[in-house]
Each structure stands twice: as structure tokens, then as C-alpha cells.
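Title: Comparing notes on inverse folding

I've been comparing how different people in this forum approach sequence design from structure. To keep things fair, I'm posting one structure and asking everyone to reply with a full sequence. Here's the target:
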């Protein structure tokens, strides 16, 4: 469910008309619904709470899905933690008011500087993904006279996800360590005076719409916990990651959070362990849309019809990068027969094509369209390719709205690149 709907012939976000937002902010822009963000978090929380054997699992929102500070603050106020994969994301979570004791730090390439920052900040959990990383964390903790709270991230060799590039749980993936390697590393962590081995973690992919691979992976993690305990190891935490898929309107509805929680209860409900989850897309995707304006319609004699928008692949890269589908809706739809369009942007790349032969209502220059389900991996993956400014992000709450990331001016963009001293007389940022 989301809070974007048609009223009196035009699309609204909660109690704000998108046509009014476009006039005030300019296009293209992202807009997020606070009500949807809050509802999705609560639905996930309530689904887990419906199964008493699961206890009260930790929920650390995956910051990489949408890292806007106002989005993080909205979720943090509900009790969400933060699953982070860089020092920058840790800093964002802390700046948004999420306390360090609710922050998880994961990722395969953590630098010494980043790990030092995480340790000094006092994050709740650092996921170890290799033996060199274990050694580095222990050394950094020793120098600080503290014990680092760690889990071992396991790669269970179970693939899942909506695209090969977002499947993270197979042996070909760069993430985590094999089950055999994990047992040895857990022993090293448990024996280290500089590390506090909390437990184990896994995350097998994103946009997972079938619970079967998740159940297989979780069953393997259960067996691993039991094996560690049988060997005399203490295992207090089992972090089962995120990855639950969302409806992008081109496929059957994926399992609900309640379906997911029921599966978790069946597989590990009696394990007597503190559970943790890291949902991202399922919280943010349908809470945001991208609004763009039609520049013109280019009809070629051979029959192709190009809908040229002011949004481009640098604003929403998912279709170019993952062949991702986004439902496209007219903000003020006209009556008339549906017409096939190739929907494209102005970036100088053939890949700047959102979709081909998409059936849409009649559209003309100046019309607004909305890319639905763009709240996750949209703005957060955008760039300034072709020297196009990053587009605004807007947060709506009821009838109120605020620009929570403004569009930078060209002057501000150019000012970030000071000329080399020997070119100072040749380069200017003035317009």
C-alpha cells in the first residue's frame, strides 16, 4: 500500500497535489510519503511481533536503499536501527538521530579509517566478511583498549534476488565467507581478547519474491548455530539480513511481511537466539516516486514514438543498470486510447531508455508523469552525469511538504572543482 492516488483527475501524495509540487519545486524531483514509510515499518514490526517465539527482533533499516536524512529520521523515531555499509552511512544514521547502539556496519571492503570511526562511534555490530578484516578489527580494537562487537557474515551458497547483480548469497559472490570458513573464523573471534563474538549473519540478495530460497538459507544458518553451540561456542545473535521484494506492478504480489515472519518462525522460532533483520526496499520503494515533465513527443515516420522526459538515467539508473521495471503514470491523465511509447531521457546515451513500447494514455509536451516505486535505489544512486544537477527530494506529511535535498545551482556544482594552480587564470566558475 502507498499514499499516492488519483483525486479529481490528478495524482496526489497524501494531501499534496503533485502538480502544485512541480510548480513550486521544478521537475524532475523525488517525493516521499511519510505515511507510507511509517506504515511499511510498522507492518514489518507487527508481523514479527505476531510470533512470540521470535522475541522482539532488531530491525535495522538498510540505509543504502534511501539514505536521505529526513527518511532516516522518520524511521529512527519509530525505533528503527540502521544497517550501514560505509562510514558515510554511519554518519548519516547518527546525524538523523539513530543511536550508535542501533547501528550495524557491514560490507566487504571496510578500510582501517572507516573501522576506526565505527569503533569510536560505538556501533552495535560489525559484520566480519573475511579473515584479513577480522585481524584488522582486532588490531584496531586492541589499540583502543576495547572489545569490538562482531558477527561473522556467512555466505550460505543460496542465490536469490530480482537480478544477478543483486544476488549476494552464492559462492561466486564477493560477500561473506563459506560455512566451513565461518566456523574457523568464529573460533578465532571467540578466542580473541579484542573481539566479542555476538553471532552470525547472512544476506542472500534483494528483491526476493519467493520465500523458498530464504527458508533454505535460514535453515542452513540454524544448523550452523547449532553446530557452533555443540562445539561449546556461545551464539547470542542471528542476523538474517533483508531482501524481501516489493510489487513493481508488473508481477504478482510478493510475499507479505507476515508471510515472511511466519516462515522465519517455522525455521528458527525455537532456536532461542536474538534475531535481527535489515529491510530496505520493502520499507522505502513504494514510499517514493519520481516526477518528470514531458519535453516533447518525437514521432518518427517508421512508427516509433519517443516520449522524451526531463528525467534521465542519471536520476533513476535502475532501468539502465538492472533492466528494472517502474510503473509510469500520467499525473493528470487524459482520456483516450493507450499508445505505445519509448520512454527516454535527455542524457547522451542509448542506455538512457526507461522502457520501450510502454502503453500509456495520450501525452504531450508539458505533461507530468510519475515513476512509481522509486523510493528505493532511486535518488541514492543518482549522479551528475552530463553535468546535470542532482534533483530535489521532497518529503510529504499530510498537507505539509519540505524540500529535504535541494537542487544545487550550476555555480555550486562548478565551485566544487577548484582549478589547478597553473590553470587558475583560465578557469572560472562564474556564469
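Reply #1:
Here's my take.
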Amino acid at each position: 500500500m502507498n499514499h499516492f492516488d488519483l483525486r479529481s483527475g490528478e495524482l496526489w501524495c497524501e494531501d499534496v497535489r503533485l502538480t502544485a509540487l512541480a510548480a513550486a519545486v521544478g521537475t524532475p524531483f523525488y517525493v516521499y510519503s511519510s505515511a507510507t514509510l511509517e506504515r511499511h515499518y510498522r507492518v514489518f514490526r507487527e508481523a514479527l511481533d505476531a510470533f512470540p517465539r521470535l522475541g522482539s527482533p532488531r530491525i535495522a533499516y538498510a540505509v543504502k536503499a534511501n539514505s536521505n536524512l529526513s527518511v532516516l529520521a522518520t524511521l529512527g523515531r519509530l525505533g528503527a536501527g540502521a544497517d550501514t555499509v560505509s562510514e558515510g552511512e554511519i554518519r548519516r544514521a547518527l546525524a538523523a538521530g539513530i543511536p550508535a547502539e542501533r547501528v550495524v556496519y557491514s560490507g566487504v571492503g571496510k578500510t582501517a579509517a572507516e573501522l576506526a570511526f565505527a569503533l569510536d562511534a560505538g556501533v552495535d555490530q560489525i559484520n566480519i566478511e573475511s579473515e584479513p578484516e577480522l585481524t584488522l578489527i582486532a588490531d584496531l580494537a586492541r589499540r583502543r583498549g576495547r572489545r569490538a562487537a562482531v558477527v561473522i557474515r556467512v555466505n550460505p551458497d543460496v542465490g536469490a534476488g530480482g537480478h544477478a547483480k543483486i544476488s549476494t548469497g552464492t559462492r561466486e559472490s564477493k560477500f561473506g565467507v563459506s560455512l566451513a570458513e565461518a566456523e574457523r573464523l568464529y573460533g578465532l573471534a571467540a578466542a580473541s581478547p579484542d573481539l566479542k563474538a555476538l553471532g552470525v549473519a547472512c544476506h542472500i540478495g534483494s528483491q526476493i519474491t519467493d520465500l523458498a530460497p530464504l527458508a533454505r538459507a535460514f535453515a542452513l544458518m540454524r544448523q550452523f548455530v547449532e553446530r557452533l553451540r555443540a562445539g561449546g561456542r556461545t551464539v547470542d545473535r542471528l542476523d538474517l539480513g533483508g531482501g524481501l521484494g516489493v510489487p513493481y506492478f508488473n508481477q504478482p504480489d510478493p510475499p507479505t511481511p507476515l508471510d515472511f515472519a511466519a516462515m522465519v518462525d517455522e525455521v528458527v522460532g525455537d532456536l532461542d537466539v536474538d534475531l535481527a533483520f535489515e529491510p530496505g526496499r520493502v520499507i522505502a520503494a513504494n514510499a517514493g516516486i519520481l516526477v518528470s515533465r514531458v519535453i516533447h513527443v518525437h514521432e518518427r515516420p517508421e512508427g516509433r514514438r519517443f516520449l522524451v522526459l526531463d528525467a534521465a538515467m542519471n536520476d533513476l539508473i535502475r532501468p539502465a543498470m538492472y533492466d528494472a521495471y517502474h510503473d509510469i503514470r500520467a499525473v493528470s491523465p487524459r482520456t483516450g486510447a493507450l499508445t505505445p511509447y519509448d520512454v527516454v531521457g535527455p542524457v547522451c546515451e542509448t542506455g538512457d531508455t526507461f522502457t520501450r513500447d510502454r502503453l500509456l494514455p495520450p501525452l504531450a509536451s508539458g505533461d507530468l508523469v510519475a515513476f512509481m516505486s522509486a523510493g528505493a535505489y532511486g535518488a541514492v544512486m543518482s549522479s551528475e552525469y552530463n553535468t546535470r544537477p542532482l534533483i530535489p527530494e521532497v518529503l510529504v506529511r499530510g498537507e505539509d511538504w519540505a524540500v529535504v535535498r535541494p537542487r544545487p545551482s550550476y555555480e555550486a556544482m562548478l565551485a566544487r572543482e577548484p582549478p589547478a594552480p597553473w590553470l587558475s587564470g583560465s578557469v572560472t566558475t562564474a556564469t
